[in-house]
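Priority: medium. Attachment 1 of 2:
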């Protein structure tokens, strides 16, 4: 059967995981074509599920207004988290599994209850949250030199790659997710700082947007899902041998090593 244009773009992105970065998808997606980009993402999500990969949650991206302005959009985006994207807290990520990786510190939520409604509020997300964790997302674009538009990053599963969350979470009750400070170090030196408010004004607001968006698409968040709620500070390019640690005030810390094959 002849591939559709979206299927062709999806295969191009899948092949890039092995063959290396590709030019932007300008020949098939306009820079702000959200519908087309999510169609490409969904094709690859179904492909990877058929290959045995298991979805364990979702990530919110473009949660900082400055990044939205840079890409000419007025909304966040989302991607899928698969089980094989998780790196153990304190573990190692092989250099060979990446193309042009960067790290960013985040707050992760693990849901205790489903969020099935497309009217979900931040308060309802908080009530459904089982635990809160410090997290690091390792983003990695399959688009050469990170020359991405909104459509490129959405089609490319939100430019996602791997993630680390603190092994031990904390209850959400009494936690200040808005003004909590974040410090991310690389090899012991401060590389990125920020606060909870960087994630769409509040991490629970980012998670509520995610819950509403996925419910409206007929794919709601479920109990047990891991939610990455967006970067709390600037992302940092990674070099082989880097030791990366993220500390989020009142919530915890996590770390990983980038090195080896």
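Attachment 2 of 2:
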């Amino acid at each position: 059967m002849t591939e559709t244009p979206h299927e062709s773009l999806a295969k191009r992105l899948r092949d890039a995981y092995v063959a290396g970065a590709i030019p932007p998808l300008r020949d098939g997606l306009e820079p702000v074509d959200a519908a087309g980009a999510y169609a490409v993402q969904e094709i690859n999500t179904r492909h990877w599920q058929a290959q045995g990969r298991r979805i364990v949650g979702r990530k919110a991206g473009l949660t900082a207004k400055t990044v939205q302005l840079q890409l000419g959009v007025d909304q966040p985006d989302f991607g899928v988290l698969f089980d094989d994207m998780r790196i153990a807290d304190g573990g190692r990520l092989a250099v060979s599994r990446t193309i042009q990786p960067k790290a960013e510190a985040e707050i992760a939520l693990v849901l205790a209850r489903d969020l099935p409604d497309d009217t979900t509020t931040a308060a309802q997300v908080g009530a459904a949250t089982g635990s809160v964790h410090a997290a690091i997302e390792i983003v990695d674009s399959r688009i050469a030199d990170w020359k991405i538009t909104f459509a490129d990053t959405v089609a490319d599963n939100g430019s996602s790659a791997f993630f680390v969350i603190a092994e031990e979470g904390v209850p959400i009750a009494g936690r200040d997710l808005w003004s909590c400070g974040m410090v991310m170090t690389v090899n012991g030196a401060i590389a990125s700082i920020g606060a909870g408010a960087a994630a769409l004004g509040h991490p629970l607001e980012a998670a509520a947007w995610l819950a509403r968006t996925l419910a409206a698409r007929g794919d709601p968040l479920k109990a047990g899902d891991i939610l990455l709620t967006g970067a709390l500070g600037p992302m940092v390019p990674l070099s082989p041998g880097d030791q990366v640690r993220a500390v989020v005030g009142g919530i915890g810390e996590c770390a990983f090593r980038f090195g080896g094959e």
